[in-house]
């Protein structure tokens, strides 16, 4: 065998080996996580933690709990751009960053209400209807409530560089993101982008003050029990 033939044969064998290694590596890789499985794991974890607090008699900061677990799953930058619509292009990068921060806080507070009010019922997920390789899906879930209509909670999700992420939430069929478009546009017309940032900041402060008051009220029974026990030990 000539030197050229030997080199060609060696290169061909190396290519075959590389192809076999690549195929084996692909087989060893874990299958991609389905978007409905991601959301199911997220809502199940939050609901379980809230039920633990309820069983232990502990008040829950639902918004903080939800936010800590939704940051990687929700594309707040895109959600804010959808809500602000054409005015988004008029905002500077600094203004866009401030809008995302404030709108994220507002969205978390609104979304977490579904968990705060019905923490004792599980969310169930409908079969995902999607074609192979599809990058945008609607993940549909619902929650059965005693003496009330079924609550539907659906998620518009897209598969991008950061994996599957939510870019809109529909509560009882109503888009949580789109519902802010008209109010936001009205504020921008009257007060500009900075006015919208200030308006969102004021709303978030009001919501936080209300949550703190509710948290303090929830602690009153615990405090009364503690004081009663302390008096009994002293007597």
Question: What would you say this structure looks like, in words?
Answer:
The chain has 235 residues and is an alpha+beta fold. The protein has a single domain (35-219), classed as Tgt2/MlaC (Nuclear Transport Factor 2, Chain: A, Roll), CATH 3.10.450.710. 61% of the residues lie in helices and 13% in strands. It is built from 6 helices and 5 strands. It has helices at 3-28, 35-55, 62-70, 76-84, 93-117, 181-234; strands at residues 124-125, 136-143, 151-160, 163-171, 174-175. A 5-stranded antiparallel beta sheet has the order 1-2-3-4-5. Strand 4 (163-171) and strand 5 (174-175) form a beta hairpin. The longest helix is centred in the last third of the chain and has 54 residues, at 181-234. The protein is globular. Mean pLDDT is 78; it is low at 20-27 and 214-234.
Structural key phrases:
disordered C terminus; 235 residues; alpha+beta; 6 helices; globular; five-stranded antiparallel β-sheet; Nuclear Transport Factor 2, Chain: A
Lay out the secondary structure.
Blueprint: H1 3-28, H2 35-55, H3 62-70, H4 76-84, H5 93-117, E1 124-125, E2 136-143, E3 151-160, E4 163-171, E5 174-175, H6 181-234
Antiparallel strand pairs: 1-2, 2-3, 3-4, 4-5
What does this entry show, briefly?
By secondary structure, this protein is α+β, with helices and mostly antiparallel strands. The chain has helices at residues 3-28, 35-55, 62-70, 76-84, 93-117, 181-234, and strands at residues 124-125, 136-143, 151-160, 163-171, 174-175.
């Amino acid at each position: 065998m000539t030197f050229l033939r030997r080199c060609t044969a060696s290169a061909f064998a190396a290519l075959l080996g590389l192809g076999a290694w690549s195929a084996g590596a692909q087989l060893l890789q874990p299958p991609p996580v389905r978007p409905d499985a991601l959301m199911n794991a997220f809502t199940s974890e939050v609901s379980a933690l809230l039920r633990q607090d309820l069983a232990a008699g502990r008040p829950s900061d639902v918004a903080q709990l939800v936010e800590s677990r939704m940051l990687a799953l929700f594309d707040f930058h895109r959600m804010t751009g959808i809500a602000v619509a054409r005015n988004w292009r008029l905002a500077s990068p600094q203004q866009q960053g401030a809008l995302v921060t404030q709108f994220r806080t507002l969205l978390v507070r609104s979304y977490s209400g579904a968990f705060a009010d019905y923490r004792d019922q599980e969310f169930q997920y409908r079969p995902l209807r999607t074609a192979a390789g599809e990058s945008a899906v609607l993940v549909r879930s619902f929650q059965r409530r005693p003496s009330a209509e079924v609550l539907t909670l659906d998620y518009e999700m897209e598969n991008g560089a950061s994996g599957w992420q939510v870019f809109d939430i529909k509560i009882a069929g109503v888009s949580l993101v789109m519902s802010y478009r008209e109010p936001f546009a009205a504020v921008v017309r009257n007060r500009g982008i900075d006015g919208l940032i200030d308006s969102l900041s004021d709303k978030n402060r009001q919501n936080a003050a209300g949550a703190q008051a509710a948290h303090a009220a929830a602690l009153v029974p615990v405090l009364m029990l503690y004081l009663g026990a302390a008096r009994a030990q002293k007597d």
